[in-house]
Amino acid sequence: MTKILLVEDEPDMVLGLKDNFEFEGYEVLTAADGATGLERARTQKPDLVILDIMLPKLSGLEVCKMLRGEGFDKPIIMLTARGQEIDKVVGLELGADDYVTKPFSIRELLARVRAILRRTDGTKRKLSRYKFSDVELDFETYRAKKGGQALDMSPRELELLRYLIERKGETVSRERLLEDVWGYESYPSTRTVDTHIAKLRAKIGDSGSEPRYILTIHGVGYKFVDPDQRSE
Ligand code: CA
Fold first, then answer.
1. What are the residues whose beta carbon lies below 5 Å from ligand 1 (ion)?
2. Which of 11, 54, 70, 138 holds its CA 20 to 30 A away from the CA of 64?
């Protein structure tokens, strides 16, 4: 069953939406403030998040930014108040997929939810931003920073890093990296991967002999690990 997380602090709105979405066959989780919403998104793994912007504790914009920063890749629909055009722009920049302006009809919101779920069904949304340690990556603009300083990284290096981060904790073989990141029909040697990994490590401050982020799994390939999330 498709699981929707509704983060909204107005009880009447929550009740109305919950009833209607459940009637349409969705499972609905709710959270009445930003901090709880963030926690539920992390632990309950919803398929889609409906996120009000004006919320107690953490605003919807902050929740969206934090989730995307952690690699949360499910669709997010923002609820904005009429006249707050700036919130829509900021929301989309922070990684929201769509927004609906209050007051809206439940039918309209349901239609948006169905459209987004269709669009993203099966095809994993590509990670657009990621942060670990003091490294900040923006895969859409191909910009990277370490300790606030711009890093000179090629699109290929960033794509390689994105691919590993999207599969963090999972060992990815050199062959699969060549197929999916390079995409050549006649593959360059797997040493190409090793050369790129070595360059990547040097740029993000990782060590070749005792790596902390991009681990070498001998005889198999590589695995990205985010040390800040290791305990999870
Ligand atoms: Ca609100």
1. 9, 52, 54
2. 11
Say yes or no: 9 and 102 in one domain. Answer: yes
Do 107 and 186 lie in a common domain? no
Q: Is the peptide bond before 103 cis (omega within 30 degrees of 0)?
A: yes
**Taking a C-beta distance cutoff of 8 angstroms, is the pair 84, 56 a contact?**
no
CATH at residue 163: 1.10.10.10
87 and 134 in a single domain? The answer is no
How many angstroms does the Cα of residue 34 sit away from the middle of ligand 1?
10
Q: Give the number of C-alpha atoms closer than 13 A to the C-alpha of residue 166, restricted to the C-beta side.
A: 18
Q: pTM for this one?
A: 0.55
Instruction: Return the CA Rg of the chain.
Output: 20
Please list the residues that pair with 75 across neighbouring strands.
none
CA–centroid distance, 177 to ligand 1, in Å, is 44
* Domain span holding position 112: 3-120
- Number of domains observed in the structure of the chain: 2
pLDDT tens digit sequence for 13-29: 999 999 999 999 999 99
| Cα-to-centroid distance, 64 and ligand 1 (Å) | 15
CA 19–ligand 1 middle distance (angstroms)? 19
Q: Average pLDDT of 95-103?
A: 88
